[in-house]
Amino acid sequence: MAYVLGCELPEGLWFQVAQDVWVKPLEDGSVRVGMTDPAQTRAGRLLTMQVRVGKTVAVGKNLATVESGKWVGPIPAPLPGKIVEANPVVLNNPNIINRDPYGEGWVLRLQPTVTFDQWESMGLVTGPVAVEQYREKLKAENLTCLRCADVIEED
Questions:
Q1: Burial of 28 by CB count in 10 Å (0-12 exposed, 13-18 middle, 19+ buried)?
Q2: The Lipoyl-binding domain covers which part of the protein (predicted)?
């Protein structure tokens, strides 16, 4: 796991740094897509999520819409494809993204219409290249990542 200004950047994921989305290839050829740690930090506590399963999207087009107390916006598609599944955990409680953006907080599963060898030409990066691009971006934005804490109710 790499960390840049408190932001987690897990190894094995691909990042579209400009759009703050991540991609995880799955064995069946589909991919999981989610918001990055910097994206959830900027948005604040997430309140609602909308995803339309079955929708076909082009790169950069809206995969999902998220809303927080201070922001409403799209999650842009890092790859072209068809949305085949929405994460029911996130639909029920989008705030899970604020606590676990790369685990339980994945947003949707996409069936890409491009091959893996085309990912880099679409702006996806991984490993040290992703870490360096995030280092530059986060320093320019003066952003340090924070996670929302679980609400603990006291008696």
A1: exposed
A2: 30-111
- The upper half-sphere exposure of residue 1, i.e. CA atoms within 13 Å in the direction of its Cβ, equals 6
Enter the tokens of residue 87: 């994460």
Tell me the per-residue pLDDT of 35-75, one tens digit each, with 9 for 90 and over. Answer: 999 999 999 999 999 999 999 999 999 999 999 988 899 99
Quick one: which H or E segment has residue 97?
helix 96-99
Instruction: With CA atoms as reference, report the closest residue to 15 among 102, 140, 100, 144.
Output: 102
Residues with Cβ within 8 Å of 122's Cβ and at least 6 positions away in sequence, in order, are 16, 59, 78, 79, 114
